[in-house]
Amino acid sequence: MKISARNQIAGKIVEIIKGATTSHVSIDIGGKIITASITNESVADMKLKVGEPATAIIKASDVMVGV
């Protein structure tokens, strides 16, 4: 699969917390954790499992900074 997003970070799934409709999928990217909120249907369709490799793909039009 090819995608246009340039910000792709490979890692390993360390946790999947399922809610009523949405799951939080945590990916370890070398000691740091990135968590994505995706539908439970997507978790099932992709057959996501803890311990499996996954890629965090970040696509955003804005980055905000606060102090």
Detailed description of the structure:
Keywords: Molybdenum. Helix content is 9%, strand content 48%. The chain has 67 residues and is mostly beta strands. The chain has one domain: RNA polymerase II/Efflux pump adaptor protein, barrel-sandwich hybrid domain (OB fold (Dihydrolipoamide Acetyltransferase, E2P), Beta Barrel). It has a four-stranded antiparallel beta sheet with strand order 3-2-1-4. The N and C termini lie far apart (38 Å).
Distance between the termini: 38 Å
Give a quick account of the main beta sheet: strands, pairing sense, barrel closure: 4 strands, antiparallel
Structural class based on helices, strands and sheet pairing: mainly beta
User: What is the mean predicted local confidence, pLDDT?
Assistant: 92
Write down the overall geometry.
globular
The helix/strand order is EEEHE
Helix content: under 10%
Overall CATH class: Mainly Beta
**Poorly predicted parts:** none
By DSSP (H or I, 4+ residues per run), the number of helices equals 1
State the CATH superfamily name: RNA polymerase II/Efflux pump adaptor protein, barrel-sandwich hybrid domain
CATH topology call: OB fold (Dihydrolipoamide Acetyltransferase, E2P)
What number of structural domains do the residues give? Answer: 1
Rg value: 13 Å
Q: Provide the β-strand percentage band.
A: over 45%
Query: How many β-strand runs?
Result: 4
